[in-house]
Write a structure and sequence with these properties.
Helix content: under 10%
Order of helices and strands: EEEEEEEEHH
Strand content: 25-35%
């Protein structure tokens, strides 16, 4: 998971919709509860989202931790990797994580070893708070590069004209003199 440290001050008051009063339901092993998520994106993702996060997460007490499984959907606004035009990218996230019943505010930041998984705490007082889990899953699901359309032509490297909108007046780049003989073959 991302960002082992958690600063509860970053939490927006709107994420209270991701809090569920089901802690007593999942305290003992093999107990389960289904949480519905329909709330604004938690702050601290570093991305702009359009609309809320929606989905369901089933929490199952395995005895060693809390298994969180389900699906989430959200829409992130990204800049095209070629033309820099903002566009919407739908995210469909499969949730399959291990969480703990530790308090979020007691979670200490620290380096985790490669073979040690650090479960995300989900307790906030007497309720289960899924906002940190959802925040981390959203960050991990955003693609590193995205195109506004599959055949995006990008920007002219000389003048910066968006080639999807119009052709620029720049001269085509001269062929590298070392490759002239290859151009003759075409």
């Amino acid at each position: 998971m991302v960002g082992r440290g958690w600063d509860s001050a970053r939490l927006d008051s709107r994420v209270s919709l991701m809090k569920h009063d089901i802690l007593s339901t999942i305290v003992h092993p093999q107990q389960r509860a289904v949480c519905s998520v329909s709330a604004p994106v938690p702050s601290g993702t570093g991305y702009k989202f359009k609309g809320p996060v929606r989905g369901t997460i089933e929490l199952l007490n395995t005895g060693e931790g809390i298994s969180a499984r389900g699906r989430l959907r959200a829409t992130v606004v990204l800049d095209c990797s070629r033309c820099l035009r903002p566009h919407n990218v739908p995210l469909d996230i499969t949730v399959d994580e291990i969480c703990s019943l530790d308090q979020i505010e007691d979670w200490q930041a620290g380096p985790a070893s490669d073979d040690e998984q650090c479960p995300v705490p989900i307790c906030d007082g007497e309720v289960v708070d899924l906002s940190e889990l959802v925040r981390q899953l959203l960050i991990l699901s955003v693609p590193p590069r995205s195109l506004c359309q599959p055949d995006c032509r990008g920007l002219c490297p000389q003048c910066g004209q968006n080639l999807n909108e119009a052709q620029c007046e720049c001269h085509q780049r001269e062929v590298d003199p070392r490759l002239v003989s290859l151009k003759r073959l075409l």
